[in-house]
Amino acid sequence: MDNPHPRELTFLPSRDVKEVDFFSSSSSTAADQDHTTHHHASSFPHHPVNTGLNLTCETTGISTSKGSPNADNTESERKMVEGELRRLQEENRKLRSMVDQIAKSYSQLQAQLFMALQKQKLTHHHQNTGVKSNGMISGEKAVEGDGRAKVEMKNNDASVSGDEKREREVSASNNNGNNAEEVMSKKHDENDDDNEGDEDGLTKLHLGKQVAASATEEDVLERSSSQSWGSCKTPNLEEPKLPSSDLPFRKARVSVRARSEAPLISDGCQWRKYGQKMAKGNPSPRAYYRCTMAAGCPVRKQVQRCAEDSTVLITTYEGNHNHPLPPAATAMANTTSAAAAMLLSGSTSSSSKETLATSAAGGYFSSSMPYTSMATLSASAPFPTITLDLTHNHHNALQLHRVVPPPGVTFPLPLHAVTPPHQLIAGHPFLISNHQKLMPPLVHRQQPQPSNNSPSMVETVSAAIASDPNFTAAVAAALSSIIGSSSNGGSAISVSPNGSPQLPQSCTTYSTN
DNA sequence: CGACTTTGACCCGCGC
DNA sequence: GCGCGGGTCAAAGTCG
Ligand SMILES: [Zn+2]
């Protein structure tokens, strides 16, 4: 059991947490201010500011500074106060809207959770919980070692037409150091030997192309699957039916967009470049890297600059590490897995509905990752991809984009950047349930605070995601994190479910700034 | 000398 | 079947 995921929250402990506690700090201050203001500004039309937040003002009276004896001063003071008051009201308003959204989201999540649990009970009772260590993801076929346990997950969307069910097998490789290697490294071989004979049907995934989830994903999947997965289904919307059932599995990828002059982002891992190609439509070449921290580590990443904005570096991660990672790298890994999980969950159910997924995701993310700019999930591309867009960092309003970038999607992830250990993040798993329709666009709050750091968001998100996919836990975590964190920049997540059906693997892409 | 990068060739899936 | 594009392999070169 060494799952990398759980591993310490080392999310790049380099920075401090940037999350702002919305409620704790901001709100409190606001409240205080309110009080003060109220007193003074009696004349104001001031609406009853009710922050839904329950910021109670009464007692506090900040009578402190007031008492100015001079009328003149009083006058000027009053103006100032009024101005402040307005500002505070504005802030309160924003806060309130946030709260409302959170509340809604919470409700929805609860409902979903509930449904999911029920489904699980009914539907799949049997999922084994595989334990997994780190997972590796194999691309399309999972190679199975003898010792692996396989778990099958089936998702059926209850809501959806039943055909959507997918079956996945996850092979949990407990002892597979090798497996991973094999899998990743040689795809080619697989074909040939894919069957070493031993396989029972399992070996070949049921699907022609379905892929077994890699171990890594397994983690995610496993956990999530047990909970979140099954559940994911959304309430029902019809799904577009996708050919998905047939679609081959693909790996989930996580990409990060960030502005960076440097050609590479340091994510705590060691990478070896194994190829470079000129991508069509993009003047800058795309570089392919493989993790060299461990022999068989299947993790790969692609790095390329944005065609439109060469300052934006897009890093896409795929796969999970099969070895322990340094703290700095942990975040990434977690992110990846988390992202994968998200994709999976999201894709599963909704592959069709962006909205829902989107909204849900958006909600969570945004809440959980205040700093991130936006996250996008898309199943459409060749592989399901989550993109974190850190290029807009500061002040962004939360937006949901349903962007479906042709190529992939983006979603804010935690960068490897070094950050301080976040408790939250690591601790709380954050999942996006696929289909929840939370509020569509989250609130946009733009807070004056510049301070955000994009990284924190990312971290948060990734951490959360990565951490455990338990739905419940995730939800709880998400909520808590949301509540706990203040949002600064906005983040948006969008999901575009196009049709890709299943996501076997996970990739994470980062773009550095 | 080992690890990494460079770079053209090769493989493979996909659309026409 | 062919061409295209994405991704990977692996020999050769580079660096410390
Ligand atoms: Zn690795």
UniProtKB/TrEMBL annotation:
Q: Where is the composition biased (Low complexity)?
A: 171-182
Pfam families hit by this protein: WRKY
Q: Where is the composition biased (Basic and acidic residues)?
A: 144-155
Annotated GO MF terms: DNA-binding transcription factor activity; sequence-specific DNA binding
Show the coiled coil region(s): none
Q: Where is this region: Disordered?
A: 23-52, 59-78, 144-245, 490-513
Q: Which UniProt keywords apply?
A: DNA-binding, Nucleus, Transcription, Transcription regulation
Give the matching InterPro entries.
Answer: WRKY_dom, WRKY_dom_sf, WRKY_plant
Query: Can you cite an annotated GO cellular component?
Result: nucleus
UniProt domain WRKY: residue ranges: 260-326
Localization per Swiss-Prot or TrEMBL? Nucleus
In Swiss-Prot or TrEMBL terms, this protein is called WRKY domain-containing protein
What does UniProt list as this organism's lineage?
A: Eukaryota, Viridiplantae, Streptophyta, Embryophyta, Tracheophyta
